[in-house]
Amino acid sequence: MQPTVAPVAALIEEFAKLPGIGPKTAQRLTFFILRSPADQARRLAEAITRVKESIIQCSTCFNITETDPCAICSNPQRDRGAICVVEEPLDVLALEKTGVFKGLYHVLHGALSPVEGIGPRDLRIDELVARVRERAGSDDAVREVILATNPNYEGDYTVAYIAPLLAQQDMKVTRLARGLPIGGDLEYADEGTLGRALEGRREV
Amino acid sequence: MPLHPRVYSTEAIVLRRTDFGEADRILTLFSPAYGKLRAIAKGSRRTTSRLAGHLEPFTRTQLLLAAGRELDIVTQAEGRERLDHLRDDVWHATGAWYVAELVDRFLEDADPHPRLYARFVHTLRLLDDGASAPATSRGWLALRHFELHLLDELGYRPALHTCAGCETPLRPEENGFSAELGGALCPACSRYAQRRMSLGAFKVLRLLQMTEWDAVPRLRLASGERNEVEGILQSVLRYHLDRELKSWAFLHAPGIEGA
Question: Distance, in angstroms, between A174 CA and closest chain B CA?
């Protein structure tokens, strides 16, 4: 049953719109906010407002940023000859944490999915092709595009669509390696992963 | 609705999946014994998940499920057959998404159709085989064959032997077609037709409806005839579903459409 106090009901309704939040969780969150100090509630409200007002998409790589171009695109230390294509801004964070990749990124904002109706026009694919084409022949020419989509059917489908579009350019198009995750059990690995891990084995 | 024990084992194929919560996925499964069912695969988005690799779409998987309050829970999964060629060919992969969407949209939950399941698996295999071939004509025929036999299995078989209007036997000539009236119309009844049906399209549709796949000859149709057959079948599917299929448009999208 919804409380009759209008502001409480309104907050429950707003929380319930968030992904993965059901009506019970929305109520719990609302009552947590009610009981917490006013200062904490204000900071939360300000953080939400600020994220909506100050965050934009970088016009080059389409990652989320406060400045355009973003810190990675405008960093002269980054290797401009390598572009890593990812599905979501969170994937950039994950890859940056490794500290291994020193090139630039391109965020597609999703993966192609025929059943969800997500088509090439819904993603930043045309922008990727234009970005690579624009720089061809210049000092900044792209030498390698790494297609780092998720290792699942939608990710592979997206790669199968993008790869031929980039094939006409004079550069390497690669994918992330497939294999066994650290901490996993060999006996539970599916044969696809195990097969690819065997194919990509390394000498010790 | 088939009753199943609290913990039950079944073979199934993932038709679609939706991310849920922190790392879970809600799966729409098609199984021979229980029909279409929904289940949750907890933690399956984590790279260390023991389930994830076995729960990819179009993988024939043996599952152990536990009955839940709203959704059944996948407790074990072991892939039996992977169709990996589909991963490298965008048109045939789109075809696989399309047949999966057809099954998902046409079937009600917990309504078993073992024959349709076998046909679905067979069609996925045909598409997987076709993915390593340069042309798409066999894959195209496999899709039309599946559409006709799906309609047949679910009781929507379009009339292609007698007129859907007056029930007189149809002759090998140009006829009409009306999805609303349930099939082909003789020249006399064709004033009620939504579209004309050339002799070529009529023959192809009858052949596909009456013939098991192994006996379907290697037909090469002109693009006009292909469009006509597709248009007729789409009118029937759309009439019964009362909606567009999202993956259908993909099969004809630039960069995806087949040779």
Answer: 14
